[in-house]
Amino acid sequence: MASLRSNPRLSRWRRPLVLSALAAATVLMLTACATTSDDQQQEQQQQTQQEQTAAAADSSSAGTTSSGSTTATAPQRTTERAAEPAEQAQQQQMVAEAAQEQQSQGDAMQEQQQDDDGMGGMSPGMSVGILTEANYDDLSPRLQLLRDSGYPVYVSEQGYTIALGTPDLSPGIHRISIVIEGPEGLVESPAMRITVVPADAPGEMEEVVARFSRFPDGVRGFHVTAVDFATVGRWNLILHIPSADGFTDVGIAVDIPLDTLAPSVGDAAPASASRTLLDVPNISDLSTGDEPDPGLYIISLADAVDAAKPFVVVFASPGFCTNAFCGPQAEVLSEVRTLFGDQANYIHVDLYENPEQVRFGEEPIETPLLEEWGLHTDEWTFVVNADGIVVARFEAFAPLAEVEAALAAVLEG
Questions:
Q1: How far is CA 38 from CA 48, 82, 96, in A?
Q2: Tens digits of per-residue pLDDT, 43-89?
Q3: Count of domains forming the chain
């Protein structure tokens, strides 16, 4: 395990609280000053009365009118002193109002921080251990199946198991999905902060917010965010996982190669000869799903690339969606087709060439299109523009909202 230490800095939500403390301290100081001024005023008034009495006695004995100047000066001083407490009270009120406003702003920012990103994050002097992928033989059979599907798995001493659903990465901005299981089961916090740090430059950290996305089955889900990997090499993702005691910080190491295996954004979509309803006697020969949507098997990938129209393609096996990153992606594609109609083409490619036989327990035969597209995990979605260029890609399950937004952006130009 490697070690990482953050640069000292003050989190955004703490700044208003510090200002509030300073303002409150100012109020106390002014109050103390006001109390002292009142005591001094009383002493000065007593001294003035004594002076006036003495002056009157001197005036009577000396037959002078000096007491006139004395009695004329005393009321002027008293008026000046009376004005001081009024000014101080006004200052106290202004400072109190400022302190109250600062406190309100601090509370609001803290609540917003909690709502938006689940809090957490790196703090000054913080050191976090970084996990590498767990040994295959040390994993349970369930986690071994996840590794067999191409997803890295990490196991922490704090009792957390973390799986990365988007291992096909390269320098640039990539969608990241993470499944976290803790001592209490699946971590479903609405938001979670992640600190992203290049291993060879620990000072160049950034923080992103991962949102929890629940699958349509209502049981599974993962946290999703976007990360900008500036260079090749090892990067550390430090997850600040909300827990009963506050936050548990777990770091995982992710290696970023020079290029992705699957088509990346900006790449041309392979013009593969995917099968359609015209190529098979039954739709069950095209999908392992119970009720395949015929609208997803009308046009081949090769024809879609040449059609000068945007299209969405899903690679998934609906009848064998069992791991933590696999969701009803073909069904989502049907929903997208319902929303956008003939503005685009929609294609589903099953992972198996013999889906009907696989459903009856025969040996599965993977479609060669997986190698043509460089796909080495179980579920993929690509959005391609009218020029045949990939504009969005989703490794692992992509909810309707994400796919819908990506296609809408293409159609809106």
A1: 15, 10, 20
A2: 455 554 555 544 444 444 433 333 333 333 333 433 344 445 565 55
A3: 3
